[in-house]
Structures are given as structure tokens and as C-alpha cells.
Amino acid sequence: MKGERQQQQQQHGMLGLGFQRGLKQREGAAAALPPKGWMAIRVGEEGAEQQRFIVPVGYLNHPLFVGLLKAAEEEYGFAQKGAITIPCQVEYFHRVQSIIDRDNNTGGGGSYHHLLLHLCFHA
């Protein structure tokens, strides 16, 4: 699995930067379809500028990302058109993304995930 992911990153010249971060930063990437095994999401709070990210579908299995999806469901329901929108600050999503990537690389997870989700959402 990791070998396949590294091959995808090398094919796109993004090894070391993280494919999702590199693609997000390219100007023409917004219209591009994500490669097989990846998905597009939008991140940003209501009224703030949103950014597009391309993330591995493996994120769907991580408890932190599942929490973000539940928040998106509560905020927007299931009727979203296009990419799923995650209602959280982009800076916070970068931190969550780093944790998910670290957990995926080490094969572990922590019991700290529930503590981080409350930082993203405001009452």
C-alpha cells in the first residue's frame, strides 16, 4: 500500500511535499480530477475562503477524518454538490492532516483524537 502511494507521489513529482498539498498549491489544479485512490474536498468555515485539497481515500478510515465528515454532515447535510466541504479552519485541517499522515506512516493511532476535534468547531 505504501509503495503504491509513493509511486503515485513520484509520478506527480510531489514526493516530500505530500501530493495533496502540492496539488492544492498549483494554480490549474482546481479543475483537475483527482487520481485513482484520491478524492477532492474543500476546507473552510462559513464565510471564509475555502481551499481545495486532494487527499487519499484512506483518510476515510481515520477517526479524525470521520469526525470532520460528521461535522460536515451536521453543517451541510448529505445534499452537497461537488467536493465535500469540511467546516473547519484551513490551519486546523493542516494539523489534522499531519496527524493522519503520521498515524498512517507509523501504523498507529492514539486515544487523543477526541481531544482535537473540539478545537475545529465553534458553538
From TrEMBL:
GO terms for biological process: response to auxin. It comes from the Eukaryota. InterPro entries: SAUR_fam. Belongs to the ARG7 family. This is Auxin-induced protein X15.
